[in-house]
């Protein structure tokens, strides 16, 4: 089975591209905290302010502004050096999934891919990014904005000639096992939406152990208070209630897919030098 443990000694720059505030907490927070602790420059980019997310807010409060403030709090907990919002409209999600018909005119899903990619490529070029994370082609669980992150991010990496592109995902097999454990504490949790989401184990190339950064990852999740309250079954809220030792077990690994690597590749660090095909 191909493998490598060699890592470059010099600090590098990693750009994490997400659709909405709180996506970084769910998928890549541990990796971001780890890289920052190792001395690498970590940059967080979001496509939208997440203004169409569910939340309980006082009258007149702008959800988008609140969620961006939460994003900065999350970024601080993870050690990010910079936060960028590309400023597209949150496309929302139709009931039952799919593209919402009442989405705003400037929604990210309707953005021209080439134009959006150029905007992201400007950040990559300015930062001299060595690595960009996006999502898998299906957008994880299929949110339209997540699918667009894959399209825009992949093209931006081409334009900026960013050498490493990792698709942030979840290993579907342990995810379902982990959710089964969580469901013992919260039987109301519906796991059916995850049964075909994300990536199967055989496609995963990077398995990053982030258990040492569970505190930072949990702080990142907690920063997004609007997305953790308002319903007993909010995914983020349920995750934050998981006891510490179990939290480290269930959420202690983050997964990525790097296309073009030999089958069976297993790497443990985003900057690990891949084996030759």
TrEMBL record:
Q: Which domain of life is it from?
A: Bacteria
Top-tier EC class: hydrolase
**Pfam families tied to this protein:** PIG-L
Tell me yes or no: is Zinc among this UniProt entry's keywords. yes
Which InterPro entries does the record match to this protein? GlcNAc_PI_deacetylase-related, LmbE-like_dom_sf
Q: Kindly indicate whether the keyword Zinc belongs to this entry.
A: yes
MF terms from GO for this chain are: hydrolase activity
Q: Which keywords does UniProt give here?
A: Hydrolase, Zinc
Q: What is its EC number?
A: 3.5.1.-
PANTHER family under this entry?
Answer: 1D-MYO-INOSITOL 2-ACETAMIDO-2-DEOXY-ALPHA-D-GLUCOPYRANOSIDE DEACETYLASE (PTHR12993:SF26), N-ACETYLGLUCOSAMINYL-PHOSPHATIDYLINOSITOL DE-N-ACETYLASE-RELATED (PTHR12993)
In Swiss-Prot or TrEMBL terms, this protein is called: PIG-L deacetylase family protein
